[in-house]
Amino acid sequence: MTNLNGKIALITGGSRSLGRNAAQHLANKGADIIITYVRNEEAAAETVRDLEARGVRAAALQVDLEGSASIASFTEQFKHQLNEWSAERFDILVNNAGITSEHPFGQIPEAELDRLYDTNYKSLVLLTQALEPLINDDGRIITMGTGLTRVTFAPMVVYAGMKAAVETFTRYLAQDLGKRGITVNAVAPGGIDNDFNADRFEKMPQMKGILAENTALGRIGRTEDIGPITAFLASDEAGWITGQRIEASGGFKL
């Protein structure tokens, strides 16, 4: 695929798991990378070192993307980092940051509903709104959806509902920004054996086997299955793909 030399990407939640893998694959293609993290400064610094070892510029910015309180200050931080690199704009936004939660429908606390909305939907919309003027024409926006908007797992009802909103927002945003040549797509992973799901698998160790048995390719997903898809959607070759939900589940419950 076309390299991404000279491009700048921002990946929210890029210090670990799917965000880090996406950063690595974009860096392998030559993009300079800015990641965000919430608390784990050590993991963020390690990710930056890893990316720099791949021959690109990298930086980590701390921000808590639960709601709107930090978005204005983060936008200024981000502009400052771009200026450090003698840039005013960037090219690729990967909206990866998010949280998970599971409750039976009748036991969903209102506070948890608010937290999932603020983090997984509200902040994504408002951050994208704040940063859109800084994205170059013909840029790329990639959001992280989930396979759970196609198949159901009852305890994830609120999480999946928020992700459904994100996937619908993706389609509408693609229509809105198409006039600038900016593509907007969602990647929807299936079950992934990573730290995001570690607590769930610890509580239900049989879940990995169930996922593998119901997947056409015969195994549970891995973090490294998703990063290359994100990198493809950021490439020139994906320039005619927009407004799409790309499920990457290995064929779960076909």
Automatic annotation (TrEMBL):
InterPro entries: NAD(P)-bd_dom_sf (IPR036291), SDR_fam (IPR002347). The keyword Magnesium does not apply. One of its GO terms (molecular function) is oxidoreductase activity. Keywords: NADP, Oxidoreductase. It comes from the Bacteria. Signal peptide: none annotated. Belongs to the short-chain dehydrogenases/reductases (SDR) family. This is SDR family oxidoreductase. It comes from Parvularcula maris.
